[in-house]
Amino acid sequence: MGDATDRPNIREYKADGVVVTWEPGRCQHATECVRGLPRVFDRSRRPWIDAEGATVDEIVTVIDRCPSFALGYRTDDGRTRTAPAA
């Protein structure tokens, strides 16, 4: 429970080694992602997430700062971050 397949409104952005997930309805627009890694998270671009724009470790570090858990990830090495159950 709690992964993207359980919540259909989650969007996924894939790159080698990582899948970035985004749940728009949960986003509080704190901009931690945009300030932390603008080459990956750019609200003026469509799609606004380019998971190929940084290393897996850089992406994980920035997503871990998302206060709303709107952003999450699954990495090939087994790391995950998903929103807590409602």
Describe it for me?
- The protein has 86 residues and is of the alpha+beta class.
- The chain has a single domain (4-81), classed as Alpha-Beta Plaits (2-Layer Sandwich).
- Helix content is 15%, strand content 20%.
- A hairpin with a 2-residue loop joins strand 1 (11-15) and strand 2.
- The longest helix has 8 residues, at 56-63.
Summarize the structure.
This protein has 86 residues and is of the alpha+beta class.
Sheet with the most strands, sense and barrel status: 4 strands, antiparallel
Q: Please indicate the percent range of residues in DSSP E strands (runs of 2 or more).
A: 15-25%
Helical segment tally? Answer: 2
Amino- and carboxy-terminal Cα gap: 11 Å
Which runs of at least 5 residues are low in confidence (pLDDT < 50)?
1-5
Structural class: alpha+beta
**What is the average of the pLDDT values?**
92
Helix and strand sequence? EEHHEE
Q: Compute the gyration radius: what is it?
A: 12 Å
Q: Any idea how many domains? A: 1
As laid out across the biggest beta sheet, the strand order is 1-2-3-4
> At the first level of CATH, what is the class?
Alpha Beta
Level-2 CATH architecture: 2-Layer Sandwich
What coarse outline follows from CA principal-axis ratios?
A: globular
Number of strands: 4
> CATH topology, what is it called?
Alpha-Beta Plaits
Helix content: 10-25%
